[in-house]
Amino acid sequence: MAVAALSTTFSFLKAAMNKKELLATGQAGDGREKALLNHVLTTAEKGNPLSVLNVMDAYAKTSSWFMNIGDDKGPILDKALEKYSPGIVLELGTFCGYSAVRIASQLHNEGSKLLTFEMNPDNCNIARRIIEHAGLSSKVVVVEGKFNERLELARKFLKDMNSPHFNFVFIDHWKDRYMPDYLILKENAMLGNGSGVCADNMGAIMGPADFRKYVKTHPEELETSEFKSNAEYLWWFPDSVTVSTFMLPTKLY
């Protein structure tokens, strides 16, 4: 157990020291993402989302650290999904598909679907194959590119789904994009009254200072609860997840 924890910490520090490439490409630069895919395909039970998630968590704890929401904070996301019971979901930051599998496996409403954005084409391919292995391809649309640069696809998705807005949004991409992309959603009426907004990595150390401040200082717009936990697969690194309910301003007559 201790050896595995040290290995995960070393793997995290290795990725952190390669921060420039990580930010530019969305990959750690040592091939761990492709290795994860191969491990999932050969180890996890096909068509079983829980098996896929368990295999990804175990691999992150024993082989290479990954920036998934993980099994420590994952239940917070699960409870938020249970609370909002969404049909139309947006994810910002697919990475290798961990949270997409976690979300899609809990979309029980008929016709429910997840739209998820990922900037790296290799990550997109990895995520699609992992999502397919979990048996959830029919519930997930993976889009290559940055959300703010492919807004027309989000609009088309909502139109095709016959929905004016997203019922739930999970934000877990680059921290400097949390605030701008939230404002894009708000200003383009892609959030409806009562929509859920869940944000990972909102702790004081890792979190985006501007968005952290915003959710705390705009209770009339975002009714927010913060759930403290640890960063993914790192027991020594404090982190948190926020779950907010978006509220439209009351009209004055």
**What is the CATH fold-level name?**
Rossmann fold
CATH superfamily label: Vaccinia Virus protein VP39
Alpha-beta classification = alpha/beta
Q: Strand-and-helix sequence, N→C?
A: HHHHHEHEHEHEHEHEE
The CATH architecture is: 3-Layer(aba) Sandwich
Measured by DSSP, the beta-strand proportion falls in 15-25%
Give the low-confidence spans. none
CATH class: Alpha Beta
Task: Give the tally of β-strands.
Answer: 7
**How far do the termini sit from each other?**
62 Å
State mean pLDDT (0 to 100 scale): 94
Overall 3D form: globular
Give the total of domains. Answer: 1
How large is the radius of gyration? 17 Å
Q: How much helix, percentage-wise, in residues?
A: 40-55%
Query: Number of helical segments?
Result: 10
- Characterize the main sheet: 7 strands, mixed
Quick summary:
With 253 residues, this protein is an alpha/beta fold. It has helices at residues 2-17, 19-25, 32-43, 49-62, 70-84, 98-104, 121-133, 151-160, 178-187, 209-217, and strands spanning 88-92, 113-118, 140-144, 166-171, 191-199, 222-230, 238-246. It has one domain: Rossmann fold (3-Layer(aba) Sandwich).
